[in-house]
Structure formats: structure tokens, C-alpha cells
Design a protein that fits this description.
This protein has about 425 residues and is an alpha/beta fold. The chain is built from 15 helices and 16 strands.
Length: about 425
């Protein structure tokens, strides 16, 4: 593959994430459901999952991901806000409007919400990067937020790969994390019914079918990537690291092995060694968040930059995004010299370590409570549902939360 062409630079200038404030160890859930610890830790590659209290939702975690990242100067430079989510709180009003107001962004700012399952975040990113690259708005910047929350799946096989989380990215012509190679991408789409949300309370689909849809979409997007870039791509040597959409870590290994095998036979042992070198470091955060849908690719990006010590400025990495339904994209980017320093500012490991551990019983009660108020016109979240959580993690901490719903109007305020 050739290097960068002469063009408008565009990429991620800043990136931040918010894991919420509560965590459920997956070994505790495995014990409660009669599953072996090895199933979640070694097969699924999931250690923990985030759980939101009922005063948090995709709006608040999206706000709380972006708020500490943005300076006042950043805010004044933003003329485009796009929120990628499949967990919107309203069928018409985009959650980007709530986020725009809470972040106190300028009125001269476009905003909207994108929806395509887990591809939502990448679809938002694609629009934002091409807008910046076009140069039509000069040095103005775009803010992209990927934010999602799973539905209740108590006792379901899906339960072990559920979760919540948000990632915020400032997109500009002065990238400091990664610079996108906009001409180097491939995409693929096919209507399928692998997983979907047919109502505001339900997630449905066929999990086994979803695995095959993911792999088919990966190969389709990669083939298009090769076609657009002059033929066969050396997948192993052209990229220093590989980042995938992460429904769960075990799925990522299947994906990586699939592409490694395209040009030559690769044993499972050889594939695992390559995976451990080029992919596994990036799963360090995903394995502690649980399923994050549209945010998962970008959490893997943060993990790769922080945990892959072999990466250096100028290295090319690959990124893959998949959204059920389906649409996928395979694209490439270049690591910027400031990448590790910028990502480290988010202190994501510190945020993860600071979460309050809850029991399986508390988790089940929260999931039932949250489900009970979906579609309700009036609701006040009980801040004493988890003893001590409000005082330890919210009181005077400056985090946004859902104060209540009255006549379907949602009120978000700062703690």
C-alpha cells in the first residue's frame, strides 16, 4: 500500500470515554447462571460489564463522555454534532439536541442522530470526517459521540455480552490521535435479520446467524477495500495493529482468523499468536465495559493506543465496523505522534477502577426498574436504589443525570 496522498488532513484530535459508575463482575453472573468461569473469561473474553443506574441513559453517558474532554475554545470551534446510537430515548427527537444543550455548544451548529445498529458510530464518524476534509467550514470542528445501552436479557445467552458505554471524539484538520486515509476504505451492505430492536423495550434476532453475518460483512468490506486500493492487500504486514467491532472478544478472534486465512493456510495456534500481538491489546477496555454497540470500535482504538507498546507514530492500523441489519466498513488510519499522550488524558483505566461493584441481585433489580419506565410519561429515578452510590459517585461531581420525566419531557441536570 502507498503512503499518504497530498490532501486535507483529517482525523481524531481528542478522544474520551465514559464507562458509567457501576460494574458487575462476569464471574459473579456466571455463578448465578450456572456457567463456567472459563466461558466468559476465555471464550467470550469478557471480564466485567457496565451497568447504568436508572438516572443514567444514552443521553447522560454521551454528555459525560464529552464534557471533560472539551475546553471552552473547543466548544466554540464545533459546528457539527453527530450522535451515533441504536438506543435513542425518543422516536423523533434526536438525543443530539439534549447533548448540544448540556455541553453548551454554539447555536451555529448542525446536529443530528444516526442509526444503524453498531455501525451507528462509524456512520457518524464518516459524515464528520468528510465534512471536515471538504474544507467548506474552514477550521471548524465536528464532535462525534457513540453512545448505547443494552436492553434487559435476564437469563438469556445474550446476557453475558450486554453492557453500556459512550465514546466522544473531536474531529478536526489537526489530528493528534489518528489521521484517516479517506481514500482507503471498503464497505459492504446486505439486508439481514441478525439482531434488531423491534420495540422500545426489546432486542430480538438470531445470535448464531449474527456471527455469520458479521464474518460475511467483514470479508465483503475487505474485498471492497482491496478492489479500491489496487488489488491484494498484505493484511499481516501492511497494518501494525487491527481494530474490530467488538460484540465480545471471542467474536473478534474469529474475525481476525478469517482474514488471516484469506491468502494462506493459518493454524489456530498461529492465528492466536498473531491475534495476541496485533489485536488483543486493544481489547483491554472492551473486556471491562461489556457490550457497547456503536462505541466498541473506538474503545478498541483507545485500548490499542494505550496497550500496544509496539505502535509508533506513522504506523498504519486497520479498523472494522459492523452494524446488524447490515452495513460494514473496513478502513485505515495513521497513528499520530501525540496519540498515546492524548488518549492517556482520559484516564480510562482510572474511571473503570473507580466504579462501584454491585451484586447480581442489584443488577437484576436495576434492569427490571429501567425496563418498567420505558415509554412512561412520568418517572422519577430513585437515587437511593444502590446504597451510597449517589453520594460517592454523583453528589457535587458535575456529572449529568436524568432528574425525571414529566409529561414525556425529560429533564437532564448536572449533579
Amino acid at each position: 500500500m502507498t503512503g499518504l496522498a497530498t490532501r486535507q488532513r483529517v482525523g481524531i484530535e481528542k478522544i474520551w470515554a465514559f464507562p458509567g459508575t457501576m460494574v458487575l463482575p462476569m464471574t459473579d453472573l456466571a455463578d448465578a447462571r450456572g456457567r463456567e468461569h472459563s466461558y466468559v473469561l476465555e471464550t467470550l473474553l469478557v471480564q466485567e460489564r457496565n451497568v447504568n443506574p436508572c438516572w443514567e441513559d444514552p443521553v447522560t453517558i454521551g454528555i459525560n463522555a464529552a464534557l471533560p474532554m472539551l475546553t471552552e475554545e473547543d466548544k466554540q470551534s464545533i459546528e457539527f454534532l453527530i450522535v451515533g446510537t441504536e438506543s435513542s430515548t425518543d422516536q423523533g427527537k434526536p438525543i443530539s439536541t439534549f447533548i448540544h444543550r448540556a455541553l453548551d455548544l454554539p447555536s451555529t451548529c448542525r446536529n443530528f442522530e444516526t442509526k444503524h445498529a453498531c455501525y451507528s458510530g462509524t456512520s457518524a464518524l464518516s459524515v464528520a470526517t468528510h465534512w471536515v476534509a471538504s474544507g467548506v467550514a474552514g477550521d471548524a470542528k465536528a464532535l462525534v459521540i457513540a453512545t448505547d445501552q443494552s436492553r434487559m436479557h435476564l437469563g438469556s445467552p445474550w446476557e453475558f455480552v450486554m453492557g453500556t458505554g459512550a465514546v466522544a471524539m473531536l474531529i478536526s484538520n489537526k489530528p493528534k490521535v489518528i489521521e484517516f486515509e479517506l481514500e482507503k476504505n471498503g464497505y459492504w451492505t446486505k439486508e439481514v435479520g441478525d439482531t434488531f430492536r423491534p420495540t422500545s423495550k426489546e432486542e430480538a434476532g438470531n445470535t448464531e446467524n449474527s456471527v455469520y453475518c458479521y464474518l460475511e460483512a467483514l470479508e465483503g468490506a475487505f474485498e471492497h477495500f482491496e478492489k479500491k486500493n489496487g488489488g491484494e492487500v498484505d493484511y499481516t504486514n501492511d497494518f501494525k495493529a487491527h481494530i474490530y467491532h467488538v460484540p465480545f472478544g471471542g467474536m473478534v478472534f474469529r474475525a481476525h482468523r478469517t482474514l488471516l486465512r484469506r491468502n494462506q493456510p493459518v493454524s489456530k495456534k498461529e492465528a492466536r499468536a498473531n491475534f495476541d500481538e496485533k489485536v488483543m491489546p486493544g481489547l483491554s477496555y472492551n473486556s471491562r465495559f461489556g457490550g457497547t454497540y456503536s462505541a466498541s470500535t473506538f474503545l478498541a482504538l483507545m485500548g490499542t493506543i494505550m496497550e500496544n507498546d509496539a505502535l509508533k507514530a506513522g504506523d498504519r492500523i486497520s479498523l472494522f465496523s459492523y452494524g446488524s441489519g447490515s452495513c460494514s466498513e473496513f478502513y485505515s488510519a495513521i497513528i499520530c505522534p501525540e496519540a498515546k499522550e492524548v488518549v492517556a488524558q482520559a484516564d480510562l483505566k482510572g474511571l473503570l477502577d473507580a466504579r462501584k461493584t454491585i451484586t447480581v441481585e442489584q443488577y437484576e433489580a436495576i434492569e427490571k426498574e429501567r425496563t418498567s419506565y420505558i415509554d412512561e410519561g412520568t418517572y422519577i429515578p430513585p437515587i437511593d436504589a444502590i446504597e451510597g452510590l449517589w453520594d460517592s459517585h454523583y453528589k457535587d461531581k458535575g456529572l449529568f443525570y436524568l432528574k425525571g420525566i414529566k409529561g414525556f419531557f425529560r429533564e437532564y441536570v448536572k449533579s
